[in-house]
Structures are given as structure tokens and as C-alpha cells.
Amino acid sequence: MARDQIDTQPIESRDELVAWLEAGCKPPQRFRIGTEHEKFPFTLNGHAPVPYEGANGIRALLEGMQALNSWEPIMEGEAIIGLADTVGGGAISLEPGGQFELSGAPLASIHETCAEVNGHLDQVREVATPLGFGFLGLGMSPKWTLAQTPVMPKGRYRIMANYMPKVGSHGLDMMFRTCTVQVNLDFASEADMVKKLRVGLALQPVATALFANSPFTEGKPNGFLSFRSEIWRDTDNERAGMLPFAFEDGMGFEAYVDYALDVPMYFIKRGDHYIDVAGSSFRDLMARKHPALPGEGPTVSDWANHLSTIFPEVRLKRYLEMRGADAGSWKNLCALPALWTGLYYDTTSLDAAWDLAKGWSAAERQKLRDDVPRLGFKAEIAGRTMLDLAREMVSIARAGLARRDRRDSQGRDETRFLKPLEDSLAEGITPAERLLARYEGPWGGSVEPVFDEDAY
């Protein structure tokens, strides 16, 4: 999250919360693709985490990037915590443990969003290499303990770090030691949102398997292919998970608002100050009975910021966020938006994707989600293996991209970005299994080579 929402317009009723979400509806010709990805900075000498301060720290990286691209600095007090492209809409931000995130601009094609990713990585290397550090795309930090991981100077993260251990066993791991790639996609209407949300939730475990890339913790195999995904199973279950209510009759913007109203708050921001209200009720704020702000109601900013602290497998804002994938190689950073764009932005493919999953029960969906972090392609649902299901899902996405027929300057369509997934499916193994084979083979039981061989 690059920047907290700034909109002090008061909210007087639940209907206004619903209308805020509904305002995200747009005609298909205005659909856009926003790709976000995180990566771990590490020192080239010693493969250590990179602190915020210091001549060779994260602050220096942000200042170097600002000088290079002239984006607007995002400040918290005296600390620079991100950069914003006020023209194109992209942003750079810091996750709690120094994970460096690009929040991509809303773009019209995978060609554009992949070019954006590549341009960003080129800029990052240009600034970071002289500072003595590189970047690693994995779903979880493969080497460092929580104690070794730096803490970024962001107020919302201090509040979250204090609250997380009260509600789950892996909240701090999630904050400080994981990285993801996600894509944000649009909807045309409430019915279109509901269908896409259901498809995304049901098939999100397939994406988790396809992008599973976090098999190491503190220098050793952790027993999972996507430990990042496993971590989310016990982070804070009041704000995470598969949203079974989304599959019930009557699902729509109102149902999501009612869900979000009951998710405990983390903070309220007034000016530059974060007020710690972790565990409190947004309903109390709506009723002007919140003990932190007696007599005061919420603003649009409060609502938007609260929605940004809800972490289901698919998150609804004024668009839908696909949240199931581990960070990975630069090719996989482009494959993730290609997969979901092919499913979501072609009606035939969206129907076919729903046909894959519409017969599953809530219990079957949950079991698949629970099994995939450990089993990957070997998980099963309704008599089908994940490998078989993933092959069909990618095939449906390919057909959708082909029908979209968005061409680059060389006449190529967007299907080429699915090739890393098709290669994994042809081998029948996840990215994590490739890493484990190297760990057990040429790496000789060490994770150190990952920093040399798999860095961006």
C-alpha cells in the first residue's frame, strides 16, 4: 500500500459505503490492469537484509529512485516511505520488513504492464547496484529470522505489528517475511463483480499452486511449497480467507459492506497521526460512538483505509485484487496478470472458469485452499487433481487472451505471457519444487545460491 487515502468527506450512512464500492463499475472498454509486486532487498556482500537508514539503505534507494524518475516523494514525518507517479498513477512503497513494492499504474494491456515491470526493475538495478544490494523474488524470505529483519518507519505497521500476535501465530511472518505478486482488475456491474469475485475465490488456490515459490525458512526447507499461503491460514482469520458468504444468494456490494463493517479496525488516521484502535468496530465509528473519537463519524478516507486492511484471497475495493500468488521470477510477474486477465476480461472465458468451480461446496473450496500450500499440484478437489485443473484454467485464460487480441508493436498477442505457467504444467512441478531440487542437488543443502542465481 503506497499511500493512505485522503478524502475528508463525511460518511453519514451505510448506503454511502455501498455507493463508494459501486462507483468502481465501469464499461468494459475502460477496463484496466494494475500489477503489483514485492521483492526482498539484500546486500550483495553477505546476503543480509537491508536496513532503512544509512548511506546504503532503503532510504538512499528511494532517494536515488526519486532523482531518477522525478516521482513525488511520499513522506511520513521526516522519513521518505514511497514515491508516487502523479501523472501515470503508479507508486513505489515499502512493506513492513523493507520489501520493495511497485504498485503499477492502471494500464490497458499485459504488454504495457509487463513493460512497466521491466522498466521498474531496470531502474531499481541502476540505483541499487552502486549501493551494494540486489533484489530477490520469492514468496518468503529464505534466510533471515524475524529478529534479523529490519522494520520500516511507517505508523500503520507499528499498529499492525502490535496487534497481529493477539489474533494469530503468523501475522509477523506475513508482515515482515513474505512477498506477493497480484493483479487488480475491473468489473462492469454488481453482477459482474459477484461473478468475478466467486471465480477468483474458487480458483485462487490454483493460482497459489501455479506460483508456489516459498519453500525455505531460515535457511532450510519448511515443508511447504507456498509457505506464504500457509502463513495466511493463521494470520488473522477475521480479515482473511475464502469468504464463503460470497457464494450465497443475495451477494452484492451490500453484503461485502456488512462483512467489512464487522472486520476489526487497525487504525484511524487524522492528519499525519495514526490512532491505534486495533480490534475496535467500524460500526461504532459509524454510530459516532467510537471511544477514540467520541461524537465523530467516519470519512471516506477512513472507509478506504479500512478496506485496505482486509486481506481475503480476493479483495474488493473499487476493483478486485487477486491475492493468492507468491512473488517469483520476472517472467512470472507478467504471467500472473495474464492469467487473470484472460479469465476476467473475456466473457466466454469467465463463463468457462465459473463452470470449472460452480459445483464445488464451501467445504471443498476450503479444503483445496488448505491443502495447496503443502501439496501444490498434487492437491485434489471433486475428483480432479490440481495439475489437471490448472492446465484447464490456463488453457481457458489462453483462449480469452487470444480473443482479446491485444497486439504489441511486433504483432504478438498477450498469450505469450502465459508461457512460464505452461512450462511448469508441462513438467508437472511448481517453481518451489524446482528450488527444492536445486537445494538438494547442486546447491548442496544451502539457500545461499538463490541470491546469486534467482535475483532480479
TrEMBL record:
UniProt xrefs under InterPro entries: GCL_bact_plant, GCS2, Gln_synth/guanido_kin_cat_dom, Glut_cys_lig_pln_type
Reaction equation(s) it catalyzes: L-cysteine + L-glutamate + ATP = gamma-L-glutamyl-L-cysteine + ADP + phosphate + H(+)
Domain of life: Bacteria
UniProt keywords, alphabetically: ATP-binding, Disulfide bond, Glutathione biosynthesis, Ligase, Nucleotide-binding, Transit peptide
Enzyme class: ligase
The protein's Enzyme Commission number: 6.3.2.2
GO molecular function term, any single one: glutamate-cysteine ligase activity
Associated pathway: Sulfur metabolism; glutathione biosynthesis; glutathione from L-cysteine and L-glutamate: step 1/2
Family membership noted in the UniProt record: Belongs to the carboxylate-amine ligase family. Glutamate--cysteine ligase type 2 subfamily.
Subunit structure and binding partners: Homodimer or monomer when oxidized or reduced, respectively.
Biological role: Catalyzes the synthesis of gamma-glutamylcysteine (gamma-GC).
Name under which the protein is recorded: Glutamate--cysteine ligase
UniProt organism field: Ancylobacter oerskovii
Lineage start: Bacteria, Pseudomonadati, Pseudomonadota, Alphaproteobacteria, Hyphomicrobiales
